[in-house]
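Ticket #4471: structure export looks truncated?
Reporter: QA, pipeline team
Priority: medium

Steps to reproduce: submit the single chain below to the structure queue and open the exported record.
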Amino acid sequence: MGTIAQLFESGERSADKGHFNNLVMLARVDGKIDTTEVNLLSRIATRLGLTSEQVKEIIEHPDEYVMVPPFSREERYERFIQFVEMVNVDGVVDDSEERLVSKYGTSLGFTDESIETKYPVILEKVKAGISRQEILQQVL
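Actual output as written to the record:
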């Protein structure tokens, strides 16, 4: 049901929490959230302006947060790149993680064909250590 505060928060804040929740779900899809995933989640939470209490709430009650896809093409790609970063952060990308990235990509408004084309390119660039901004510029 959510808290009173959740009822009155902005659409942008709600979208940020939904996005962060999706990242948490990607991190735990293999059954655990390891140190590298926690570190990436912490950096992203800080960038999104989420408090430690909000992060704890999202992790403890993931069903209360839905994905609100961004409107701009650039923001959708940026989120998709973050999903790819999350599944790769531990150096191992398994099938369940790839399926979840594909599902979230669809939720962001990407077609299956677009995901099949962009995902391997983005993953390769993430593995090569290319910054999110550079990847974003290259895939737009």
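Status: closed, not a bug. The export was complete when the record was re-opened. Leaving a note from the reviewer for reference: Confidence is low (pLDDT under 50) at residues 4-8.
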